[in-house]
Amino acid sequence: MCLDSLSCPQRAVFHCLVEGIVKGEHLYSRVGFYFSLCVSPQRGSDELLSGSMYNSPSSGLSSISDTTSNGSDSKKLRVEDRVGDAPPSRVLHIRKLPNDVSETEIIALGLPFGKVTNILTLKGKNQAFLELSTEEAAMTMVNYYSAVTPHVRSMPVYIQYSNHKELKTDNSNQKMLLFALHVIQMVSSLLVTDLQSGGTLASGSNSSDGCGTPSSPVLRIIIDNMFYPVTLDVLLLKIFSKFGTVMKIITFTKNNQFQALLQYNDPNSAQQAKVALDGQNIYNACCTLRIDYSKLVNLNVKYNNDKSRDYTRPELPAGDGQPPALDPSVVAALGKDSGSLLGALSPLSAAAAAAAAAGRVALSGHSGASGVLLVSNLNEEMVTPHSLFTLFGVYGDVQRVKILFNKKDSALIQMADMNQAQLAMSHLNGQKMYSKIIRVTMSKHQTVQLPRDGLDDQGLTKDFTNSPLHRFKKPGSKNFQNIFPPSATLHLSNIPQDITEEDLRVLFSNSGGTVKAFKFFQDHKMALIQMTTIEEAIQCLIDLHNYNMGNNHHLKVSFSKSTI
């Protein structure tokens, strides 16, 4: 956007926002003040909602909830806050907003996912409509918040697709509102770029004591006395995620100091993290955290790599850096420094960090979270508890599986712990299983209950607690080092000496796929086999992991990071 092309009022707005930032005001406060003066609330009318799905008590607002009958399958399906069947739209309907919510706070929900192009608030109904620039951005926002409940002023709000494809508002101030939205996003982007390149426009602190009303969801972090390396994964995995959902993070070096900008999904989480962590040591007697509020509203992350991550946009390219696994020296330091902020990381915790590093999931640090997953959109004609056990068992030790009696395209899967559940969710959400794209989210249930004695649940619930097929029950197992996302290439092990390449090609072809390439390792006890698609590889893993090859040789199958 060129300033010369702006009208006088528009230039005034732009300079007003930038001036406020330079003077030490947070962007939220200037934008909120601007809205209060120039943009009268878009209260809308009942016309927008009349005749729509939102007024219909039978419309089914929402998605499947896992509050279905977990204990007794004889109960009727009970669904709470179901998301409706509205098709994806770039217009989103937001419900259960606080009474005094501002337009700025509503816009902040959408800014991390793309450009916000319009807003309509229905103050009397505690609802709003938010329009994003693309349907893809809206889908990313809905998918993200289906797994992580958004909060406004510490109150949970609910987001779903609207039946409307665009917002049409006649308010005379609407052009100015849209321009203000554009300026907000542009100024945020400029400030991030300036800070990363060593500028000083946003280098000040908005507040130093962490008290009072939190003003920013973005924290500026400086690490003093840095004797041990501190990576992006360390910042996210074990420290800041304990206080809320981390959405974006940018790390950089300025004035020979390691620094980071970290964005939560709400200012309250940022305030809690600042109060609790400012002045604390990451490791014993070193790596001291100095934390202030940033003046930025939203971080503009271009790459998912070892320097920056946007957990709301896993499709971003890696750029020059590559997302690393957790540094071994860091893991060693964690194990030694029990008096620091961090404790020792288990191997699966490190794997969960690597999954987060790849931008596949935001690791939330909410206490009381369980290791139970809700899996939906399953092929109910094909799926079985054992097939889910085998697939999800690639990422952790599955304890129990329950296919819901009254909704057989959905299942609850209990992993051994929260880290394993997040790891499985990060890798399997959106993958194709039996020709259907499955959805994996965290469940509200703490455990998967077994059916009552004498109750026949048609084999829909299975207890795998004592299964000999758990991959991670042995401490120090090499399986901890070989956890990879689903891929078309599979790693085979425990192959009998008399089995030939042709035998394995035929075996895997009979599972319904096409073998594209094959490679034996030198000892012929292990091999790589490449299928045409990831879906075919998933099918082969489900069918052939632990397959009896004769003479008590059970084939071991896992995903590989290699190609042939």
From TrEMBL:
One of its GO terms (cellular component) is nucleus. One of its GO terms (molecular function) is RNA binding. It comes from the Eukaryota. Residues 57-69 have a biased composition (Low complexity). GO terms for biological process: mRNA processing; RNA splicing. Residues 73-82 have a biased composition (Basic and acidic residues). Coiled coil: none annotated. Pfam families: RRM_10 (PF22976), RRM_5 (PF13893), RRM_8 (PF11835). CDD domains: RRM2_PTBP1_like (cd12693), RRM4_PTBP2 (cd12702). InterPro entries: HnRNP-L/PTB, HNRNPL_RRM, Nucleotide-bd_a/b_plait_sf, PTBP1-like_RRM2, PTBP2_RRM4, RBD_domain_sf, RRM_dom. Residues 57-82 are annotated as: Disordered. The keyword Repeat applies. Keywords: Acetylation, mRNA processing, mRNA splicing, Phosphoprotein, Repeat, RNA-binding. Residues 90-174, 219-296, 371-445, 488-562 form the RRM domain. This is Polypyrimidine tract binding protein 2a. It comes from Cyprinus carpio carpio.
